[in-house]
Write a structure and sequence with these properties.
Layout (H helix, E strand, L loop, with lengths): L5 H15 L4 E2 L4 E2 H13 L7 E2 H8 L3 H13 L3 E5 L7 E5 L1 H25 L1 H25 L1
Antiparallel strand pairs: 1-2, 3-5, 4-5
Helix pairs in contact: 2-3, 2-5, 3-4, 5-6
C-alpha cells in the first residue's frame, strides 16, 4: 500500500466523525431520523386536492424499498403521526396523510434543525459558514459524479 496523503486522511477522519454523530433520533419529537424523513416527504408531496400520498410515491421519493416504507408508516400510524386510507379509485393503493400530531412533529423538527444550523453559523461566523456551504456543495457534486465508480 502506498504512503497515505495526510490531507486525504484528515478528510476521511472528518467524514467518520460525522458518521459517528447520533443522528438516529430527534429528542424533540422522539422519532427516528428515517421516520422524520417520511413525515417531511409526505408534507412535501402532499397535494391539498388529494386524500393523501400513495405509499409508492413516498418510496420513490426517498429511494427506498416499499417494505421499508410500510414498516415506517406502520410505526408512524401506531403513534398517531399519520393515517392511512384506501384509495377510492384504485382499491389496491393505500394513501397516507399527516395527522395534526404529524404536522406538529414536523414543525418541532424543523425548528430544532434550524436552531442547530443557526448555532453552527454563529459558531463558524458568516465567512466560514459560506465557505463550508460552498465546499459541501462541491463535495456533493464530486461524489455524485463519481458514485457509480466509487460505491
Amino acid at each position: 500500500m502506498k504512503n497515505r496523503n495526510p490531507v486525504v486522511h484528515k478528510l476521511l477522519e472528518s467524514f467518520v466523525q460525522f458518521h459517528k454523530l447520533n443522528w438516529k433520533q430527534s429528542p424533540m419529537v422522539s422519532l427516528k431520523s428515517s421516520e422524520i424523513m417520511v413525515l417531511f416527504s409526505i408534507k412535501k408531496l402532499m397535494n391539498p386536492d388529494t386524500p393523501g400520498i400513495k405509499m409508492s410515491d413516498i418510496s420513490n421519493a426517498l429511494r427506498v424499498a416499499s417494505p421499508t416504507i410500510t414498516q415506517l408508516i406502520n410505526s408512524l400510524e401506531t403513534n398517531g403521526f399519520v393515517e392511512r386510507t384506501m384509495d377510492k379509485e384504485d382499491r389496491r393503493a393505500v394513501r397516507v396523510k399527516l395527522t395534526d400530531k404529524g404536522e406538529g412533529a414536523i414543525e418541532k423538527a424543523s425548528e430544532s434543525f434550524y436552531e442547530a444550523f443557526n448555532g453552527l453559523a454563529e459558531f463558524l461566523g458568516e465567512e466560514n459558514s459560506n465557505l463550508l456551504a460552498d465546499l459541501l456543495s462541491q463535495t456533493f457534486t464530486y461524489f455524485e459524479k463519481r458514485k457509480k465508480e466509487i460505491f
